[in-house]
Design a protein that fits this description.
Elements: H1 15-25, E1 39-42, H2 47-52, H3 54-63, E2 68-71, H4 79-89, E3 92-99, H5 100-103, H6 107-117, E4 121-126, H7 142-152, H8 155-173, E5 178-182, E6 190-191, E7 194-195, H9 196-203, E8 209-214, H10 215-220, H11 225-231, E9 236-241, E10 243-244, E11 259-260, H12 269-278, E12 283-286, H13 296-308
Length: 312
């Protein structure tokens, strides 16, 4: 999910690999992967493993077939140290996630860190509110607070979030970094016929705020990623790719995800990737937030292999 929310919502070489990548990216008849882009992993997927063995985990991510990663927290490491670890694993890192609450203070330092790390994107992965005291009784755990936000945000809160996104985007653009927003399912709640996600699209400046479409969460909310990619092809730069076991009860409360490995769930990615090919997608990242059927390193290899063999 994002950089510092715990729980399941919180948060890919050498010359030989280069030769392999050449065949992967050739794009002939859709061979190797559906978008002709490096296959990435959102590192929230292996958050527990990174906490125990940061460098070793990055090397296992690369060994599973990934070429890019998206950070979800930096594990108290300097930008230089993270960059060195990524280089040692043969991984590039174009993007990182941040909850808005983190970006509301010390923004200049965070932008400086992102610049030093070489990020192209800073992505807000969870909203916030102007008056947090409204949720003071939500509970002390980040999960409880996230659930309270998911259920308590108003349309005016979403408009306030869009305003903050524009302001942050102005600042990141000064150093050549694109700001953006990543959805969950809560953005698809409607307020008297107005959907919060549509309001984000309306209220944010396309020059300042790009969108990272989380296909899984959009499907959980009962909406079709392909429809949005075709309707707003220039608004999206990145995708999150995941699968879900159960889509029978759409929800906007953060409680309806049922993660599984790609190809084992209910999401049909063919129309999504077909739509993504006509949009302006620059990167896409696997994200698997839970592991009911396989341990994390086995699961991420299944996910990567699925994409490598997917044709559009």
């Amino acid at each position: 999910m994002s950089s510092s929310f715990p729980s399941r919502r919180e948060f890919l070489r050498t010359a030989a690999a280069g030769a392999a990548a050449l065949s992967v990216f050739s794009g002939s008849r859709g061979i190797a992967n559906p978008l002709g882009l490096p296959i990435g992993l959102q590192l929230y997927t292996v958050r527990g493993q990174l906490q125990k063995d940061f460098d070793g985990t990055l090397k296992q991510v690369a060994a599973a077939g990934y070429q890019e990663v998206e950070m979800a927290g930096f594990y108290n490491r300097s930008a230089g140290a993270v960059k060195k670890s990524l280089e040692a694993a043969g991984l590039s890192c174009p993007s990182a996630h941040y909850p808005l609450v983190e970006l509301m203070t010390g923004l200049d330092d965070k932008i400086g860190y992102a610049r030093d790390l070489g990020l192209h994107y800073m992505i807000c992965a969870f909203p916030w509110v102007a008056d947090p005291s409204r949720f003071k009784n939500a509970g002390s755990s980040p999960l409880a607070q996230a659930m309270a936000l998911a259920n308590g945000l108003t349309l005016d809160d979403w408009k306030w979030n869009a305003e903050q996104f524009n302001k942050i985007g102005e600042q990141t653009r000064k150093v050549g970094i694109q700001f953006g927003y990543h959805n969950h399912d809560l953005e698809f709640k409607e307020f008297n016929g107005v959907m919060a996600y549509d309001e984000i699209l309306k209220q944010t400046d396309p020059e300042l705020v790009t969108l990272e479409l989380d296909c899984g969460w959009m499907e959980v909310a009962g909406h079709d990623p392909a429809v949005y990619l075709r309707k707003y092809p220039t608004r999206y730069s990145m995708l999150h790719v995941k699968d879900e076991l159960d889509l029978s009860k759409p929800t906007t409360s953060l409680g309806g995800a049922s993660a599984t490995e790609l190809g084992r769930g209910k999401i049909n990615y063919k129309p999504i990737f077909e739509a993504a090919k006509v949009a302006e997608i620059k990167h896409y990242f696997v994200e698997q937030e839970a592991f009911p059927d396989a341990p994390p390193f086995e699961a991420i290899k299944i996910d990567c292999d699925y994409l490598r063999n997917f044709t559009v």
